[in-house]
Amino acid sequence: MITRSRLFALAVVSACTAAASAQNIVKNGGFELSTVPNGTFITKSAGDLTLDNWVIGGDSIDHVGTYWAAYEGTQSIDLNGTKSYFNTAGSVAQTLATVVGQEYAVSWRMGGNPAGAPATKSVEVFFGGVSQGVFTSPDTISWNLKSFNVFATNSNSELKFVSLDPTPYGALLDDVRGLVRGQAQRRRIAEADPVARGKGQGPHPI
After folding, report:
1. Strands (E), 139-170
2. Does this model's pTM top 0.85?
3. β-sheet with 120-127: strand ranges across
4. Is 97 exposed, middle or buried (0-12, 13-18, 19+ CB in 10 A)?
5. CB 95 within 8 A of CB 192
6. What's the pLDDT score for residue 86?
C-alpha cells in the first residue's frame, strides 16, 4: 500500500528533479564571471565588455566583490558607478533566447547602496523593449526578492535594468533568473520544503 507520506515523498522527489533541471536562461545572473578582488569593487563604464554576457549602458556601474555580502556567490553589481559624482546612473542588458508565446518568470535580488542618497533606490526594468515597471529598494544590503511574469513576443528578448538614481549610490542587483513559468512554480515547491532543501528554515522562493 502506498501511504500518504510515501506519496508526499515521491512528490517532493519529483519537484526536486524538476527544480534541478529548470534552466535559467539568464547567463551570469550572479555576476560571478570576471573576478573582482576581495574587499573591492571595479567601476565599469558604458561599453566595457568585461561584465560577461551583459552590456553596460548609461554612465557606469560598479562590479562589486566582497566589499559587501552578495546574495549568492561573492559578487554583485551597483547600477550606479563611481566614475564621477554627478549623474552616474548606469544600466545592464542581456539578450535572452526565448520562445514566442512562452511565459517566463523573471526574478532577481535587489538592495541599495547604503553609502549615500537617495534613501530609496529605483530601477526600471524592460523585457523585449517593454517596461515592466519601476522597482524600488531601501538603501540597505537587504536583498529583497523582485519579480514579474511576461510572455515572450520574439525569439530574442532583451532584459534590461536601468537605474533612475542620479547619484553614485544606486540599486544593487544579484541572482538574476529567467525561468519558464511552469519550471519556476515547480522550483518554488521544491525549495519551500525544508527536507528537500536539507535545511530547517522557511520558504526560499525564487
Report:
1. 144-151, 156-163
2. no
3. 55-58, 90-97, 156-163, 120-127, 130-138
4. exposed
5. no
6. 64
What CA–CA distance (Å, rounded) separates 167 from 78? Answer: 11
For residue range 155-164, list pLDDT tens digits in order.
999 999 999 9
Q: Which three cell numbers stand for residue 3?
A: 501511504
Residue 130 amino acid letter: V
Question: Among residues 167, 98, 92, 83, which one has the least CA distance to residue 124?
Answer: 92
Phi-psi category of residue 58: left, alpha or beta, with phi > 0 → left and psi -120 to 50 → alpha: left
Q: Is 156:96 a contact under the CB 8 Å cutoff?
A: yes
CB 110 within 8 A of CB 171: yes
95-148 pLDDT tens trace: 999 999 999 999 999 999 999 999 999 999 999 999 999 999 999 999 999 999
Contact partners, residue 32, CB within 8 Å, separation at least 6:
73, 74, 75
Rg of the chain, C-alpha, whole Å: 18
- SS3 of 131, please? strand
* Three cell numbers written together for 78: 551597483
